[in-house]
Write a structure and sequence with these properties.
This protein is mainly α. It is built from 19 helices and no strands.
């Protein structure tokens, strides 16, 4: 049985702009104490000075990437001054850099308790919550940051990305548009709005945004990458390839542009060129499962079924839940008359598609499994 259905995976990219900043001390030199100050006040002043010095030391350690040492200094400062907002804030950032999101969120919460209008506290806590998977909590904090500071550019950019992830594309478009009003030369905002408008099927508007992003930053390789994708959809193959080539010229280390150019080449029948680009993408990202999957498709078009199956094997190794790789391997095995292997792969693909909510794909795979099982 000759199975010709292929499952291709394609990706785009949009970026987030995350702002995490340290707060430093003011003038660390304490004023000369007046005669007659009580002993208790001398102790308070002494603790204050030591806490400020520890904050400065912690900041130095943070900047040298000694995050554990920075946390130790910030913690010592907090013991001396339990209401030291800046120390809680900076310790929260240090915890975040070490991947300790829960402690980071706890410190940002303490910052907000001490100063309910600390806009960066809400912003950073939103970032940490989003990384923990608490998207609604993150959205609430972004909302509060924008309520406090209606011109907080990074809050609009990040809330826009989060809204897009939650499926609210119009809300995301509004946030990126507001970011552009705040800073008309913000390339990231044009890039992200372009991606949203592409998803809203307004492809000409998407290209206009990518054009503007490139006008603001002529070396913005992500904008070239995304504009190329959109041009392909509009049938402008020459323009798309020119954009992919320019993106690679600007940043030859970005794996996704090679991957996208490979997909384009495979789309218009340049299978050898596609394989060369998949090779380059995989040199930069050796565990990129979807690139192995799609390189397998290109090899199959060149009748290299053994090489295609080897690529599907690698795709499955790096992404065991990649239904497309099982489906495509089943198809290649069927071409080689490996009926039991094809049946097994199509059954696995059907199961994964069902788990992932792709009922139509699951039904197709199941029908093929039954055909090979006869």
């Amino acid at each position: 049985m000759n199975i010709s259905i292929d499952k291709t995976i394609t990706l785009l990219t949009a970026i987030s702009s995350c702002l995490i900043v340290l707060e430093s001390t003011g003038n660390a030199q304490a004023e000369q104490l007046k005669i007659g100050v009580s002993q208790n006040r001398l102790i308070v002043q002494s603790n204050w000075r030591q806490a400020e010095q520890l904050l400065t030391s912690g900041n130095r350690r943070f900047r040298s990437r000694d995050y554990a040492g920075a946390i130790a200094d910030f913690s010592a400062a907090i013991r001396l001054n339990p209401r030291f907002e800046k120390a809680f804030y900076n310790r929260g950032i240090a915890y975040d850099r070490l991947g300790n999101r829960l402690s980071s969120i706890a410190d940002y919460t303490q910052v907000i308790n001490l100063n309910p209008r600390n806009v960066n506290g809400y912003f950073n806590r939103a970032i940490a919550k989003e990384r923990m998977g608490d998207k609604q909590g993150a959205l609430t904090d972004f909302d509060r940051a924008i309520e406090i500071d209606p011109k907080y550019l990074d809050a609009y950019l990040n809330r826009g990305n989060l809204l897009a992830e939650l499926g609210n594309l119009k809300g995301a478009d509004a946030d990126f548009s507001q970011a552009i009003k705040i800073r008309p030369n913000e390339a990231d905002a044009y890039l992200n709005r372009g991606w949203i408008r592409y998803r809203l099927t307004d492809k000409k508007a998407a290209i206009a945004d990518y054009d503007q992003a490139i006008k603001v930053n002529p070396k913005y390789y992500l904008a070239y990458n995304n504009r190329a994708w959109t041009k392909l959809d509009l049938g402008d193959i020459k323009g798309a390839m020119a954009d992919y080539n320019r993106a690679i010229e600007i940043n030859p280390k970005y794996y996704l542009t090679y991957y996208n150019r490979a997909n384009a080449r495979r789309g218009f029948g340049d299978y050898a060129g596609a394989i060369a680009d998949y090779d380059l993408a995989l040199q930069l990202k050796p565990n990129y499962a979807v690139a192995y999957n799609n390189r397998g498709l290109a090899k199959r078009r060149l009748k290299d079924l053994t090489g295609a199956i080897a690529d599907y094997d690698l795709a499955i190794r790096f992404a065991p839940d990649l239904a497309e790789a099982y489906y495509n391997r089943g198809s290649a095995r069927g071409n080689l008359n490996n009926r039991s292997g094809a049946t097994s792969d199509f059954q696995t693909a059907a199961k994964l598609y069902q788990q992932q909510g792709s009922k139509q794909e699951a039904a197709k795979a199941l029908r093929l499994a039954q055909q090979f099982k006869r």
